[in-house]
Amino acid sequence: MRFKGLIAGVVLLLFMGCSSTMKYTWTKDGFSGKHYEKILIVALTDNQESRTTFENTMVKDLEEQGIVAENSMTLLPPFKNAKRPSESEIHELIVNNGFDAVIVSSLLDVESQEVFEYNDNMYNPVYYRHGRYIYSHYNYMSNSGYYKEEKSYVIESRLFDVSAKSKEDAVVWSGQSTLTDPTSYYSASRQYAKRLAKTLIENKIIN
Prior knowledge:
This protein has 5 helices and 8 strands; from the N terminus they run αββαβαββββαβα. By secondary structure, the protein is an alpha/beta fold. The chain has a single domain (about 5-110, about 155-200), classed as Double Stranded RNA Binding Domain, CATH 3.30.160. The longest helix is centred in the last third of the chain and has 18 residues, at about 185-200.
């Protein structure tokens, strides 16, 4: 299987729509990191705020380390009402625009669990008399709490080497991370992008 089929198949998911700490990582045997001339950053999500925030944050953080990267919005815009590009067309876009690596991030799973949330604790003053003196102390009281649903989003990122000739050789690194109850698409996307960029740089996966 040619590499273009693999990359195109993954990137095509972008147009099918999907939703969105570095917990697990895997590095291909024999791969000790590499300098790439130009990296394409792709977030597989139909939420444009999340996608734009993630891709732009990744690009900024990588470029601060001297690594050239670009977001995929111009190269691979949403095609909701247009004809989707073929595998060969996607491959040509990637190669003709000078990309030698692609980082693809996508949602793997959403996990839900019930957690008990305690209310604020209270300390009530208590007064008592002993002879001519009045003393005081505080009684500790715990308010009742409540159960709430907590959601965790499991996200996977993969680094593809465009020069690879087979499916087995294409993925040189992958990592999974979990975000718990993010406050917004923006904060979740930005938080994950920074975590991913830091992991890749500190472990010298890209340089």
